[in-house]
Amino acid sequence: MTYSRSRTLNVKKTKKRNRTRALLALNGILLCAIVAVAIAVWKSKDGNGAADGPSREPAATSSPQPSGSAPADSGSDDGRPASEENGDGEESASPASADGAIKLAFVGDVLPAAKVLELMKINGYDYPFREAKELLSSADIAAGNLETPISERGIPAENKQFVFRGSAEAVPELKNAGFDFFSLANNHTLDYGWDGLSDTMDALDDAGLQHAGSGNDDREAYAPAYIEKNGTTVGFVSVTRVVPEVAWKAERNHPGVAEAYSPQRAVQAIMEAKENADIVVVMVHWGVERADKPVEHQTDLAHRFVDAGADLVIGSHPHVLQGFEAYKGKWIAYSLGNFVFSTTTSPKTSETGVLSAACDKDGACKLSFAPMFAKQSQPAPMEEPEGKALLARLSELSYGAAVGEDGAIVAKN
Asked: pTM to 2 decimals?
């Protein structure tokens, strides 16, 4: 492996994040000051707001709009913003603001490489995500596992049956599909060595996509990534218990991925994230391929991660869906299977879906699963009978939890 990536990258990311937060805070202070001055001027011109003067509206002013909010002139008849009232006169809001929760969306393995890349070149780079984009984009934060390097450099790994390489042309469509975060801790991101993985991290950085689970050394690889939305900070920790060779593991002076064969470093990262975030998500690559149920190391690690402070544990690698577990008031999804992946001869590897979690700032989450089936590497909602059958099977595979016909996942007493 070569060591081409600057060891200061993590420091730069932290400084950039701090600069961004400082800038947002400064903008908020300035906006409050502008509003206060405008109100004072209006009152002074209108007799301090007395009702005995002629009725008039304050002049329209241009002020910054929160991202995704309605324009200032699109209000209801009573002067309230349109976002506060629906067509029936009832109050409405986004899923995140309705009850103070933030809406997260999770999927399994995403592979913009191999046969999927061929389909993207033929049908457009947005092709795999067209039927799922609405659901992904409706979440405040969407996350998945990126199962390939994005690079034109590097030497292919030896003694591997499958070696993947994706194209940078596909990365913008990952962002456009609604994704905000990708885990890079898996058994394919080093298929083209550190050159390939370093390029992958750069490509995601350039697209504004957060990532975790890999780095120039172990400190960067285990470092949590943080995303703040609607006043809630979500911390992501990514680790893998599937490493093809020891050289892939990130060490003190060695680049690679964050491994979980020894859980201590992962536990430390989770505890660090807990100190800095309202909600902690652990995305972990583990288990046995095409196994319907988790093996012992999955349940053991999942419980350790929750005990350390994880609110959600999201698994991948088996390439098939596994069940859910309610554990100490937190949630574990043992495998979300393939999401966008090369089609195989096994129908179960094409059964997929989007896991949604509406989480309060204290980490309490309500889960639901939207069943999908991927045809030619394009996941789309299942027909109702097939969807209900899949949800029923997932309910049978779950522990201390049940999955309803509507996709709602609830803890059993």
From this structure: 0.78
